[in-house]
Amino acid sequence: MDSDGDGVGDLRGIRSKLDYLQWLGVDAIWISPNFPSPMADFGYDISNYTDIDPLFGTLGDFDELLADAHRRDLKVLLDYVPNHTSDRHPWFIAARSSRESVKRDWYIWRDPAPDGGPPNNWRSNFRGSAWQWEEKTGQYYYHAFLKEQPDLNWRNPEVQEAMLNVLRFWLDRGVDGFRVDVMHHMVKDTDFRDNPPNPAWRPGMSPYRELVAAYTTDLPEVQEIVTKMRGVVEEYSDRMLVGEIYLPVERLMAYYGASGNGAHLPFNFQLIGLPWNARDIAAAVERYEALLPSYAWPNWVLGNHDKPRIATRVGAAQARVAAMLLLTLRGTPTVYYGDEIGMHDVLIPPDQVQDPYEKNVPGLGLGRDPVRTPMQWDGDGSGGFTTGQSWLPLADDYKTNNVAVERQQPTSLLSLYHRLIELRRAEPALSVGEIAPLPADNDLMAYVRKTAERRLLVVLNLGDNPQTFNLAYLKSRACLLVSTHLDRDHEKLADDLELRGDEGVIVELL
Ligand code: NOJ
Ligand code: MG
After folding, report:
1. How far apart are alpha carbons 289 and 305 in whole angstroms?
2. I need a labelling partner for 458 at 20 to 30 A (CA). Which of 107, 151, 198, 305 fits?
């Protein structure tokens, strides 16, 4: 939400929408980077970690937002970007100025290969070599993302101290925690070995993935840093860390820390990547649950600012089933803004592209602008997002697909989100209960969430044909609590539970 008409969302804008977030029932909000930045990667290139970019407001605005949020029992998480700074950060300006700079070793510098080219084959996530030549000092520097995002050298204790103090700065101000950007990237191989080729790569996939990032991500030393970050968070009470980590689930588990002294929630992105069918998803849920260490709390995600939106991936009808899945699985759910009203990816005309990733690797569908378009608040000219010209175009269905309209519709997707969140809060079986998967056929997926006192059965139809789920073997009276269609409340159920296509239900077992 934009408060000042410049077309860009800002802190006062968020503050003006806390009523909505409270009504929706969320516990916490995570704000993407709001720190001073040249915006080469829309805030993920930070030039000062301890201030607010004027585009988004002031430190005073931030304090007011935080206080207002806390008054409503809403927690606030900031986006902590430890892997890289902006090339305009004073640390990097000093580092690149001379080889003798006291900040030189705060970044990763390397001599050229014997042929004068880059020191090894490491690639940038955003295209090409990860090494940028600096004529002035005759060395290359490493950047896992844009050349405007040089990687910090976390092996340097001074970097560690400075960056851990950034956490303290915001924790002292009262923030409840952080989402930590590319947590698995923080340390690189000291021998600078070449990354091996990836046999699974196919044309059309990101060129970055042609290599396996074996020597640039998920090194054992990353865990030591994560533990230190957790240690800082533990200096305060009731604060938390969410890690952004794209790794196979077996590796993801390490980020909880060897004894629960890592991230509270290493983001579990499986629902973003898996094919949308009952068997694959049911198997993934079981495997994830089985791999979780005893001290670990699970979490699930349907979308974020980097990946295609759920409504576009699975369609409007299945987006309702996805909502029920997300909000009934065991673990903390994260909802990306707008997914609760069914926002879809917006086609961005080439001359309006903002995302540097799309500019670097155009046409592969990797660009992220389509999922970053203005929140559709109401049917006004700008979707109620701004009084000016929004920084990205608005979806063309904003007149019918918006918060104001959907709040009035008893069976809208927004009403479904509201209902499911309300139920989750009211039912310990859903929020903290165990999960027990049940056998199911065809497009059905089923599980029971339970506490000692209560059992709730969830049955989801991930296909568009009607399906029957046999309740008889559960030997229990059953009453329907909520359907994704929001039209079957309190229905008494006999032996056969009939589901329509694209329907999910939550059933009380009595
Ligand atoms: C992950 C963030 O989610 C993405 O938006 C960003 O471009 C990269 N990290 C680099 O910070
Ligand atoms: Mg603004």
Report:
1. 26
2. 305
